[in-house]
Amino acid sequence: MAVPNCDRAEVLHGKQVAFFRKGREKPVLVFQGHPGNETDITMDRIVVDEATAQPTTNGRCRFYGSAEGGVAMIVCFAAYGDGDNKRGAVAMMHVTTG
User: How far is 88 from 35, CA to CA, in rounded Å?
Assistant: First the structure.
């Protein structure tokens, strides 16, 4: 399971969330998808480090807001791979608002 310690996230609304580790220009995890009915982004693909994008199953990115407005937390997860090669990725980031 990929669970990197990230210090920055870039969001393309309804399409993608990329998570970055301190000191790296390229993201360590990129969750790619489309706007979802019950989620903010439903995952279609994931890129781990600089590998080729892989199709996902059961993946989502959610944005949780505070009472004052703004995003307070980003949570993304996805399963990928097939057969005996099933893997998962999870990323969370707390965002200070205001």
Answer: 21
The C-alpha atoms of residue 10 and residue 34 are separated, in whole angstroms, by: 16
Is the pLDDT reported for residue 37 higher than 80? no
Q: Are 39 and 51 in contact (CB under 8 A)?
A: no
84 DSSP 8-state letter: G
DSSP at 37: S
pLDDT tens string 52-84: 999 998 899 998 877 676 667 889 999 998 778
Q: What is the pTM of this model?
A: 0.84
> Distance between CA 8 and CA 91 in Å, rounded?
11
Query: CB-based burial of residue 23 (10 Å sphere; 0-12 exposed, 13-18 middle, 19+ buried)?
Result: exposed
CA atoms lying within 13 Å on the CB side of residue 25: 0
